[in-house]
Design goal:
about 300 residues, mainly alpha, Tetracycline Repressor, domain 2, 2 domains, 14 helices, about 75% helix, EC 2.5.1.141
């Protein structure tokens, strides 16, 4: 088992609230909160608005706590990467122990409030998501295998499942499919980024796929996952869990995803260029998930309105 990186020698400056907020990775949290909210809104049945808000707040706080623990553990790794060197810990704006304690408090509070205010099944799944990201992915998978983001993709796939279970109190095929869609989306999304920041990962010894297996293998796997994502994204429609609004949107959006993955997959030389195909795919992959889950909610609301009319 890898031990936590050694503390930096620089004396940390007094941390501000902005530094603690930065520990929660607000950009990542926005996607987590959005997919969790969509899972909650798309679930059958209803939930008291206050309880629903509490559930989404707990998902956000839990994700923030896991992110803080991730940065506590990886402070020295972050310091060696251009993309992450300005974070509070590598920049010397915060004590390592403060980040750790902040992460533990947020994680524990989110699980307890979820269990007491919503239901204990959603609280258990939230706890599993925190452990998955902060321990299984961060400590175990990431420094050991180029498949880290494949297996670790489950960490970001939990929110819609949690949101759904917060309403229904049970796990059924639909929330599992939502989990699977994000799980399948994660590798091409993250590897597109890894292709144009691979030197950072190589510098700090993280075995990301482009570093260990090379660009060609990574590009082929991006295409393979993009191909699989297309039918999987439409499966909720195929099994009758959604209407045509979601189904047609899923096929269109995933078709664009696949089309953008083709120039990435078949490139043979990237010398002296700006990696535009990879950056386009990465940018679209973020937008893709937002639109796909927005269509899931739109489909549910329109079907519900039609049933009432």
């Amino acid at each position: 088992m890898q031990t936590a990186p050694a503390a930096t020698n620089a004396a940390p400056l007094p941390a501000e609230w902005r530094d603690f907020f930065a520990l929660t990775k607000p950009r990542v949290m926005s996607l987590v909160v959005f997919t969790g909210l969509c899972g909650l809104l798309a679930a059958p049945g209803s939930i008291n608005p206050v309880i629903g808000f509490t559930a989404i707040l707990c998902i956000a706080i839990g994700a923030g706590g896991a992110a803080a623990l991730n940065q506590w553990w990886e402070a020295d790794i972050d310091a060696g990467m251009k993309r992450t060197a300005a974070r509070p810990l590598p920049a010397g704006r915060m004590q390592r122990t403060d980040a750790r304690d902040f992460g533990i408090v947020l994680s524990g509070a989110s699980v307890m409030v979820m269990g007491l205010a919503v239901n204990w099944l959603s609280a258990v799944i939230l706890l599993l998501s925190i452990i998955y990201y902060a321990v299984i992915y961060t400590i175990w998978l990431k420094p050991r295998t180029p498949q880290n983001i494949v297996i670790g993709g489950g960490a970001g796939a939990f929110p819609p499942l949690i949101g759904w279970v917060a309403v229904t109190g049970e796990i059924t095929a639909m929330p599992v499919l939502l989990f699977a869609i994000i799980f399948m989306w994660t590798p091409p999304h993250f590897w597109a980024l890894a292709l144009f920041v691979k030197t950072d990962y190589a510098k700090v010894g993280i075995p990301m796929m482009p570093v260990v297996k090379g660009d060609t293998s990574t590009r082929r796997q991006i295409l393979a996952y993009s191909v699989l994502l297309l039918p999987l994204s439409a499966t909720p429609w195929f099994i009758g869990g959604t209407g045509a609004i979601y189904g047609v949107s899923a096929l269109l959006l995933s078709g664009i995803f696949l089309a953008l993955s083709l120039p990435v997959a078949f490139r043979r030389s990237t010398e002296n260029d700006t990696m535009k195909p990879e950056k386009r795919l990465f940018a679209w992959s973020v937008l893709y998930l937002f639109i796909l889950f927005a269509m899931l909610v739109a489909d549910r609301l329109i079907l519900a309105e039609g049933a009432l009319s």
